[in-house]
Amino acid sequence: MGEGLEQLSHVSDRAGVGAGMIPRWVAPCVVVAFAFVMYASGGFVGDYASRVMLDTGIMMIAAVSLTIVNGFTGQFSIGHAAFMAIGGYVSGWLTYYGLLATLGRTTDLGAEHGWLLLPAAIIGGLAAAGAGWLVGLPSLRLRGDYLAIVTLGFGEILRVLLQQTDRQRFSSQEMSEVGLLGLIVPPDVGGASGFESIPKLTNLAWVYLMVGAVILFAIRLKYSSYGRAMLAIREDEIAAESMGVNVTRMKVRAFMFAAFFAGVAGTLYAHQPGTLLRPADAGYARSFDIVIMVVMGGLGSISGATLAAIVVSLLNVGLLELADYGAMKWRMPIFALLLILIMIFRPQGLFGLREIWDFFRSRDRTGGGR
Amino acid sequence: MSLLEVKNLGISFGGLRAVQDFSLSIPPGGLFGLIGPNGAGKTTVFNLLTGVYAPSDGTIELAGRSLVGLRPFQIAEAGLSRTFQNIRLFPDLTVLENLKIAMHLRGRHTLAGTILRSGHFRATEADQTRRAMELLSIFDLTDRADAYARNLPYGDQRRLEILRAMATQPRLILLDEPAAGMNPAEKLALAESIRRIRTDFGLTVLLIEHDMTLVMDVCERITVLDYGQIIAVGEPAAIQKNPKVIEAYLGEVANER
Question: Average pLDDT for residues B58-74, to the nearest whole number?
Fold first, then answer.
């Protein structure tokens, strides 16, 4: 026994990332400070560059949140964009009609309305998490690939349903004619032509505050008893259940956490300057983009998903730069080729199951593995 | 009163009666063995006891509480833990993490506490680490705490599985062929460890084993299974001489002589 206790000090406890030696308030402070820098730099970064950074940040949130399901619990969800769309549409409906009713306009907003994004993101996230619970509860009880089928179907159903929604109302006068119930059933979110003029509340500070929040959340979850129970499901579901992990409950929770942050990402996307929220945003094409990032980064690797989101986003930008030379039509072939090459040469993704900091730990203890 | 009381347990897979009329009573602190030829239904019995399969009939009680109908994680909570015949560790997690996962069920965990790294969270983590290191010291594995489970040598993987089962703080532990693939020296060490588990940790043990030397050496009482039915129950010495057992293992030698 005594020997065991002596050994304690030599073991670099992996829960130490976030706990351990670094005081627990440091990480949140870094996040807030970074967001502040982003906020302050908003005036200096050009429109184009800031647009790229917004897109990248939103994809980082989506990829890291999907890691909680696909990477931690090893379940395969391919409908993440649907949860983004739910967050976007719900929060967009609230801010658009809310401002239309109170201010009479949704554009040309001053900085004093910037805070609205926070409640919008929380409500969008909660709506998405609720949808995640509904989708996850039946499909996650089963072992196997049912979740993939159900989530894929869910995204397509949602896309079609959104196309059938009512036309948008553009004045407070129109709003009072249809009444609150009329705005909700069916929702007046523009149908197939898209949901226009959602207040442009998203900025770099909000996006990177949320990026920081989701990364912090994912890391602290991963290195906790709670998160380890999820990882155990990925590793061996039967053994996890036999060792006392309530597998169904853990899977559903992971799925809801992921859906929540997808809803946050969707809220940021909906309120981003220059975007039009469309039903196609819920479809499988966008979901696959997110899955690609998670697979590319390495299933379960938070740092891998973050990096892959940056790489994929920048690759998109690079191809856009070459658009004059007809590069855009090569976008899908290039992604396909990239994925094939990764599957051949590094099937476990950039970082595999590991985090970037795991590679700096002593090799003889931990070497090998995936 | 017995700790584990199994009565007339049975399960059918379609028309196949895999286990029939299986009864077993283990007193607290007992060290019992379950043996039988390949395919006799030993692992099926373990799967029935741990809730992996639902029994077609019969009762299972652990310290007076019925386990029938409970899911495997609830049975682990009730105090029954196990190892697997084909090792089922969490290969891409560290040795320490493997043990801490098995401790999850005994802790109180809130999401807020986890994300905010509350004092309770830190205390729980530290306590889990301390207890995991204590467990590792039983098999001299403390210096492997940080290694990924997949990188352990085979024998250490088997030992880690036993420790992981112990980490759930069970009252009864089921060991499914713990000596499989071990050499004679390792088997001797294992026999010693199994005895220690019982005496030092007050655990009750039921083990499946093919290695007769080990079974006869450590077990107080043995149940022999063949074609899903109990053919003999008794102390090791009596089992060794039981003609039915010899027949099950070696065929009908006696008649031809």
Answer: 95
Residues of A with CB below 8 A from B50's CB? 242
Residue at A260 is within a domain: yes
Does A7 reside within a domain? yes
A289, amino acid identity: D
**Looking at this protein, which amino acid is placed at residue A347?**
P
What's the ipTM?
0.92
Gap between the Cα atoms of A218 and A31, Å rounded: 14
The encoded tokens of residue A368 equal 């090998």
Residue A315, domain member (yes or no): no
pLDDT at B203 over 90: yes
Q: Which two tokens stand for residue B26?
A: 């283990």
Helix (H/G/I), strand (E/B), else coil: B188: helix
Count of beta carbons in the 10 Å neighbourhood of residue B177: 19
* C-beta atoms of B146 and A366 within 8 A: yes
**First and final C-alpha spacing in chain B:** 45
Q: Which residues pair with B232 in a beta bridge?
A: B224
| Domain count of the fold of chain A | 1
Of the candidates B13, B15, B26, B21, the one whose C-alpha atom is nearest the C-alpha of residue B57 is B21
Q: Are A292 and A312 in contact (CB under 8 A)?
A: yes
Long-range contacts of A363-369 (CB under 8 A, 24+ apart): A365/B144, A365/B146, A365/B147, A366/B94, A366/B146, A366/B147, A366/B148, A366/B151, A367/B151, A368/B148, A368/B150, A368/B151, A369/B91, A369/B92, A369/B148, A369/B150, A369/B151
Residue with tokens 């856009």: A320
Please, which pLDDT band fits residue A5 given cuts at 50, 70 and 90? very low
Structural fold of domain B4-94+169-256: Rossmann fold (3.40.50)
Q: Does a structural domain hold residue A178? A: yes
DSSP string, B51-71: TSS--SEEEEEETTEE-TT--
- Output the CA torsion sign for A136, A141, A143, A149: negative
Residue B24, beta-bridge partner list:
B6
Cα gap B178→B183, rounded to integer Å:
12
Q: Mean per-residue pLDDT for A81-85? A: 97
Range in A91-95, B60-64, B194-198 the model is least confident about: B194-198
Give the three-state DSSP class for B88: coil
**55-84 of A, contacting B, C-beta below 8 A:** none
Question: How far is residue B5 CA from its own chain's centroid?
Answer: 16
CB atoms within 10 A of CB B255: 7
Is the CB of A15 inside 8 Å of chain B's CB atoms?
Answer: yes
CB contact under 8 A, B109 and A225: yes
Query: Can you give the residue range of the structural domain that contains A277?
Result: 2-284
Q: Where are the domains of chain B?
A: 4-94+169-256
CB atoms closer than 10 angstroms to residue B86: 8
Record the pTM.
0.90
| B52, B90, B105, best to mutate vs chain A, most A CBs in 10 Å | B90
